[in-house]
Design brief:
The chain is of the alpha/beta class. Helix content is about 45%, strand content about 20%. The protein has ten helices and seven strands.
């Protein structure tokens, strides 16, 4: 039987150099269409963001979305915010020469520059926050954007009603194992997510975006336990 993993263990892994070094292996095994999500994010932002955009990327540790966006948009510059110093180091390494167009900020939304930014991204991050912190973070992103600027957010979001949460979490785990993740690790993650994460339903997540000041909220990504939206400031 796999040892129980707490969310403190999960968050601490983002500061563990050995685990950080293997970070890039994880998301494609847990998130269906992971690379496509990055491509779609770039397309959605470019619909509204100018060629010389300043883009705020929240939860930028690892640098995978930064690399995807910077590689497609040579005129964009970025501010990448993440609370884990080791993950920011990994992002700089992942980006290589593209890192010259990124300002790295260790911290949370309160530590980000005031902007105003032309666009913002927050992928696979908001599900780690409780409802109050999630609302505060979304408001903080909105306050740093120019009027009408696009915001793409994607994270774990699925029906939370009686009997439904367990069904969807089992699918989350089954996909990861089928994608090559270690079954013991998946079992530990499954238990930790079920016990500790305050996940919301898609309708509740959309309400958080609207309450945070965003309009034109539209779901653009849905894959098992993951949802993504574009909204306008």
């Amino acid at each position: 039987m796999a040892p129980e993993t707490s969310m403190d263990d999960v968050m601490a892994s983002f500061s563990n150099p050995e685990k950080v070094a293997r970070y890039a292996e994880g998301p494609p095994r847990f998130v269906p269409g992971f690379a496509d999500l990055h491509r779609m994010t770039g397309i959605l932002l470019a619909e509204h963001a100018p060629p010389d955009s300043r883009v705020l990327v929240l939860g930028a540790g690892g640098g995978l979305e930064l690399k995807a966006l910077a590689g497609k948009q040579p005129g964009w510059t970025f501010t990448g915010v993440d609370p884990a110093a080791e993950m920011l180091k990994l992002a700089e390494t992942t980006l290589g020469p593209l890192a010259s167009r990124v300002e790295f900020v260790e911290g949370y939304i309160e530590d980000a520059p005031e902007g105003p930014f032309d666009a913002a991204v927050c992928l696979l991050t908001l599900h780690f926050l409780d409802t109050g912190d999630r609302r505060r973070t979304v408001r903080g992103v909105h306050r740093r954007l120019k009027p009408g600027a696009p915001f793409v957010a994607a994270h774990s979001s699925f029906p939370q009603g009686a009997g439904r949460r367990s069904v969807w979490l089992r699918r989350y785990a089954d996909f990861a194992v089928a994608s090559g993740a270690d079954p013991d690790q998946v079992a530990s993650m499954h238990a930790a997510v079920d016990k500790h994460l305050n996940l919301l339903s898609p309708d509740e997540d959309e309400a958080v975006l609207r309450d945070g000041g965003f309009s034109d909220v539209e779901m653009v990504y849905s894959a098992f336990t993951w949802r993504g939206w574009i909204a306008r400031a």
